[in-house]
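User: I'm curious whether this sequence folds into something compact or stays loose and floppy. Could you predict its structure so I can see for myself?
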Amino acid sequence: MDLKSVRKLICLLQKHPLIAELEITNMLGFSKIRIRRSPSNSSENQASGIEDSRAGTMNEKAVSITSPLVGRFLATADSEERPLLLEGDTVAEGDTVCYIEALRILRPVISEVTGIVQQVLPEIGQSIEYGQPLFLITKSDSS
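Assistant: Here's the prediction. I'll summarize afterward.
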């Protein structure tokens, strides 16, 4: 495959935001080209868009709990259980708020603040990047 064809594929990917990945293999199966849309760009844009849209309504006590690692967002360790946090729930410093699955290992995310959950940002099972906001919390007066 020549450079001109690769550029066309990249342009196609840019024009159609719903396409996440293109993979082309030649007829003999000897060469393969895979072009992926960067997941961090879409996650950062979604997170920054959420923060920007809420900036006017959130007060100075609002903080976010962010992901300490890259993985998959899980609201609970067991899919049959109630999510650990829902909007309106109270969270205390040291509470486990969710899990991030990385390399098939569940790692707890621990809250560093006490307050009330304003919003759960990611969907269950969504890919999460390091530092991505997971929850918006209104800090309580005692913290």
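Summary: Residues 38 and 81 are 32 Å apart (CA to CA). The chain has a mean pLDDT of 77.
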